[in-house]
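Figure-free illustration: sequence to structure, shown twice.
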Amino acid sequence: MFGEMIRDNMPSPNAASPLGTRPYLKSVLRNVIVNAQVGLHPWELYPERPTRLCVNVEMFAWLHGAKAHDKDLYIDYDPVRNAIITWPERPHTPLLETLARELVEVCFANPLVDAIRISITKLDIFNEADGAGIEICGERSELLPAGNVNRKNYDQSRSE
C-alpha cells in the first residue's frame, strides 16, 4: 500500500511544476528506505529508535543544444544512493531539510544535472498518516550558490 501511495503521488515535472515543460532526461531513485537519527520530537532523540525514511530523488538534464543529440548522455544516480545509504551511521540530524540540502549538493556535483526534485518522508511517524516530510524542487541556479562544479572536475573525481 505505501509503495503505491508514494508512486501515485510523484508528480510529473510538467504538471504545474517550476521545472516547466521543456524536454528532459530524468534519472530517478524511487522509494529508497533508510533508517536515520533525525527529528525534533522527543521520541526521535533516542539512538536505539531510528526513524525510517523514504527518499525519492529525480535529477533532470535539459535536452537542448548538443545535449539533445548526445547518445552517451546519462545521469549517474550512484553518488546520490551512496550518500543516502550512509545516513544510518551519521549523528543525529534535527531537520529533514539538512539531509535534503546535502543531497541537493550531491546531485548538482554532476554538471549535467540542471534541476532536481528531492522528497524525504518520515514513515511511521504519526499513527494517522502514512508519513510526513519535505520536498525540494528547483533548478541549479535557484538552489546552489555561484561557483558550481565544472565538467572537468566532475569527470576527474569520478575516475579516481
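We now fold a second protein in the same way, so the two outputs can be compared directly.
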Amino acid sequence: MAKLSPYNYCLYLLGNREHSVHQIRQKLIAREVDDAEILRCIEKLQTHKLQSDERFCESMIRYHSNQLKGEQWIKHSLKQAGVSGDQIENAFYESEVNWFNVLEALINKKYGETPAVDFKDMQKRKRYLVGKGFGYGLIDEVLGR
C-alpha cells in the first residue's frame, strides 16, 4: 500500500471496521505520526462522525455476542481497546443482546443435548463457560442447577 496521509490512513482503517480512538492513536504512533497531527486527525474524524467509541462498542458487542462470547469477555476486550468504563457500561445497557440465549446457543454448540454425567463434568463445563466470559449466576440459571 502506498504511503497515505495520516487522515487517509485513518479513513482506510475505518473503512474496514470500527476502531476506538485508542486503537487509531496506537496505529498512528506506530507510523511515527506526531501527536499534534494525531489529535487533528481524531478531531476531524469525530467532527465528521466517522469515528465514535459508542459505535465501536455497539459493533464489538454485536460481533462478539454473535461469536458466542460472554459479557465479561467483551467488556475486557473493550477495556483493552481503550474504551472508558462508563462508555462500556452505557453500551451494554443500551444493547439488546439476550445473554441467556447467547449462553444457551454456546452450550448447545459445545455439548449438544448431552447432559453432564457427574459433578466433575458439570464443574468442567462451568469453567469452560466462565472462560468464555459468562458469569456464574447466568450459567447456573441456564444449566438449571
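Summary for the second example: The first helix runs from residue 6 to 16.
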